[in-house]
Amino acid sequence: MAAGVSSLVFWTLSAAIFLNLVAYLVALLRVTMWNPYKLHRIMRQRGYGGPPLSWTMHNRDEAAEIFLHSRTVLKPIFGTVDHNIRHRVLPHYFEWSRRYGRRFVCSPRKASQCMLWAGTEAEVIREVLVNSKTGFFGKSQTSSSDALLGRGGLVLVTDFHEWSRQRRVVRPIFYAGKVKETGSIMMEVAKPWLAGLAKKVEENGAWTEVEMVQEIGMVTKDILSRAAFGSDYLQGRKGFDGQQKLKVLEFAHGGANALLRRLPTKINKEIRKTRELVTKTLTEIIQERRRSVESGQRTSYGDDLLGVILTDGEAHNANSKNTTKCTDEQLVDQCRTFFFAGHDTVQVSIAWTLVLLAHYPEWQDRIRQEVFDVLGHEDVELHAGTKLHKFNLLHQFVYETMRLYPPVPQIIRQVVKDGATLLGEPVPKSLDILIEPLSVHRNPEYWGADAEEFKPERFAKGISHACSHPYAYIPFGAGPRICVAQNQAMAEVLLITVLFLMKFRFKLSPSYKHSPIHCIVLEPSSGVQLLLQKL
Ligand code: HEM
What we know:
Blueprint: H1 2-45, H2 60-73, E1 77-78, H3 86-89, H4 91-100, E2 104-106, E3 115-117, H5 122-130, E4 137-138, H6 146-149, H7 160-170, H8 176-204, E5 208-211, H9 212-229, H10 233-253, H11 258-261, H12 266-294, H13 305-318, H14 328-341, H15 344-359, H16 361-375, H17 380-384, H18 392-404, E6 411-415, E7 421-422, E8 425-426, E9 432-435, H19 437-440, H20 444-447, H21 463-466, H22 486-503, E10 504-508, E11 513-514, E12 516-519, E13 521-524, E14 529-534
Helix pairs in contact: 2-4, 8-9, 8-22, 9-10, 9-15, 10-12, 12-14, 15-18, 15-22, 16-18
This protein binds protoporphyrin IX containing FE (HEM).
The site of protoporphyrin IX containing FE has 23 residues, from helix 14, helix 15 and helix 22.
GO cellular component, one term: membrane
GO molecular function, one term: iron ion binding
Binding site for heme: 483
């Protein structure tokens, strides 16, 4: 009898495991093969071209081949700068757009079933990012950056009500008045950093070589940690290091979809482990804030980013009308979003600005002169944060830097409802639409024949006069999901640049290799080596 029961249990369990496995395989095949096939077939029937799909229903191999080819054929450029970078940064999209025209379909990433590339068209940006009130276009529900940004955080969240709640909660943090407050934190962090750098240059003599990406990284991380989380860089360091590692892993992974992520592969395990480390660091920061309130050290959670997120979470949970509760996991996701979105973008913006100031010494001199004209030579640091709006030339220079080197070179949306149309043509649900700031910023249709040239003066009369289409310039995105922190981000880029210009004259080192790479943000893959001379 006992043997019969245990045999029944054994077969029932085996059957359950077998059925689960079959269900998983069917789901995997549906997501990775059937859905892409179906979407591609629809789009091809509507006349869209694109690279032929392999039997695995992707173009990953071809994309990798073009990428590797571009790495071997294109020699790195040492000690100077060539702005013609599309074929280096996004070589497969560049090549396919030459072959298949201004709109084509492809599947170069594991997470995307079918992607419509519409990189250069401002009208697509208007329809997809700006006029999406009807809710046809949304954030991808199968985004590949969950591990990095957190599915429940503001950047990726798909549910409209949850998004508007989170956006409403954090928006006051980034109002102009608050940005001024953050300005003093920026100053507090930047001053000792610059003093340390100046000491190093003094000790080593004029034209000391310094790798600036690391240097800027320390400053921007410290500013974000203090301004947003009330901690310093050292406390958040493990979190930042983990995020950095996750970014590289995600990039290497080609953005796998949720089902592929469950497979016990080495890279999946590594991603999971690193994500847990970031979660642990963020949880500790959250718990420390809670403890400080419980112990009476603080009277409230505070009005920095972490404070408003925690206060809102608690208010949400206390409201009996809300049946779903805001969990710690969601709070961590919200913080995770800002840890990444608020750091790497600013770091690379400052890095590219310094590269170009070093490459164009006449602009460097003119802007430095402007800085001293506006601030005078005394008490300059006191005024720098409040007078940023007066730096006209610097604004032009940074706008132009973000035009040719947009920190976020690609933006993706998904068709999330049946019945959507794009430029008058029907588009199927689940289709991804790829918009490229990197390409639309260089489209001669909007920018003129000199679109690939670096000419800050095109912004002399402001952004709206620099190009012929209102959505041809989108370094911070566009529409309702435009960067919530763009004022603060710009202030940080301008302020750090001003302070740096006031302390140093600088030029590119011969060892600087101009090789921008797309690793979620557009970053200088070999660092930024500058030669510094103290003023
Ligand atoms: C120069 C620096 C920055 C650039 C170029 C930048 C760029 C962008 C872009 C292009 C988007 C839109 C993405 C999309 O439409 O899918 C975005 C969204 C966002 N950014 Fe930034 N960003 C910068 C700095 C920051 C900072 C400092 C923070 C926070 C401290 C931040 C937080 C966010 C958030 C939360 C979103 C999502 C907004 C939403 O979906 O409602 N960003 N950013």
